[in-house]
Amino acid sequence: MTQPNPPKPLGMTDFFALEAGEYLERLDAVLQPGEGTAPPADEFVRLARALRGSALMASQQPVARAAAGLEALARAIREGRRPWDAAVKQVAVRAVDDLKIFVRRVPAWTGADTAKAETLATQLEMLAGRPSAQVRAAEALGLDAGARAFVAREGAAIASALDRAGQALRANPLAHDPLQHILKALQPLRGLAALNDLPPLPDLLEGIERAIGELDRARTAAASPPGGPELFQAAAAAIARAAREVAERGRPDPESAEFQTFAGLQVKFLEADQSETGVVSIGTLYFDDAGPHIVKRGTAATRPAVLGRVELVSHGEHLKQVADSLERAPSRTQRELRAHTLGGTFRALATAGGGPLADQVAAFAAAGRDAVTSGAAVANAPAFAAELRRAGDILSRSSGADETALATELEAVTRAVLALSGGAVVPIESLAPTPAPSRAAPAGDAPIPETPDLVGSWVTYTRLVAGGIGAASLAEVIAAAGQVTAAAPSADTARPPGATAPRRGVAPEPDVVDILTLLYRGQRAQQRAQELRQEARTASGERLRALVEEVCDLVALAIEPGSPGQ
Questions:
Q1: What residues contact 2, with CB distance under 8 A and at least 6 apart?
Q2: Cis amide bond preceding 200, omega within 30
Q3: For a pLDDT cut of 70, what percent of the chain falls above it?
Q4: Is 128 exposed, middle or buried (0-12, 13-18, 19+ CB in 10 A)?
Q5: Higher pLDDT among residues 409 and 439, named by residue
Q6: pLDDT-based confidence at residue 523 (cuts at 50, 70, 90)
Q7: What are the angstrom distances between the C-alpha of 259 and each of 157, 190, 208, 333?
Q8: Phi then psi dihedrals of residue 513, to 5 deg
Q9: 401, 492, 504, 549: most buried, per Cβ within 10 A?
């Protein structure tokens, strides 16, 4: 059944009245602090700024003008330019009451109301004094309080989406929905006309979108590059600080610690994902069973061997745009991020071959990628940007110019890019291994000297074997270990009676000495036992047992008949 008088839907003005009324009620409460205390300055500024933003969104310019005056007074109190006293409190409370009247009169607004709102705004601004330099700089960029409030609100929403996505990716690296939520949250701030005047916000947003694109590309291979959750949480901290600084000062800090952290993580993230995912046979993805597996072989899609002229022209225009952005980057961190945006372009150019121009394009892409990854592109940003612009001009002319001539021009650019990173173009033939020089055999039968090195030792061994010494034998070494040989003290005392003296130049035969003559005996055995006794006082375990056994052996040798000292 149709109602006779259905309720009229709320319009923009009604919504504004509800929202602005809520802000004004909260301002009333803030402006009633305890006796002798000032109101919370940050909350005063935030509510006044929100009121102005609401009026701007509803296209109520006179109300926004009056709210701007109240915001100026709140900022003056927060910055210490206007102390809080009874007179200031009276003016602020009366201004809130006047704004309530303005909000109620919005449906029947007149020119007199506009004049009253302008007068109120002028009085509040005169009481506030001269705005700070930061606020004047923001207003010079066209960022009024409403625009700054918009950046703060959308930046907080993006930071929240990024933080949730980082947590979700930790639990499931292949999650897809959190990335879509981030892209949706980026859209409002992307549409802000003054965004390019607020570095590093544009680089932050572009870096986030690139990371999402890399994750989507890696997801098709069922693999995710490491560092995604940490990257998104660092982006959340960076964009939250940038948005807060825009709201409070009108301009973010392009060299903030949060932005530098995000830039460093993104560079590592992109470098880890630079290598193309290897192509594997689909047959390797099945279970190791009887099948059936591959029922019918398909036909692989053919890829053109050479980039088309239209593609080359498009890449050339992109290179020129990146060169311009590199030169305009006000900080090193921004230059590093913008240089790494060339990763996709270099990857596309390096994989194409065939023809003199395409081959030289691939060589230029490899040189450019090396310059970016080595840091030479950022360290020599003006020179690198100039070479990018030259390469872009060459590729932009590829639709009609001679291919060989363009390849020659691009080769010069490639050499210049390599020179930035300390490299040089060398002929491929120079990389072949040098053949080892052949060693000439000794002329004739000249003998090799028996030097003390390894060669001389081998020559000596060969001579001894040829002389009948026999081959090396481990058994002979073991058999000889049971005897100890000692040279005779002199030729006269060692030669038995009737023996002839050895011939001059011939070594005498050594005498065999019984090993028992070398053992401890008598007084010497007792001295050795005393030494072991002292050592046994600090020994334990197996070592003590060995010492006791040795002392027992020495006692037997000391009392053996015929020992010296008995």
A1: none
A2: yes
A3: 71
A4: buried
A5: 409
A6: confident
A7: 18, 18, 12, 8
A8: -110, 135
A9: 401
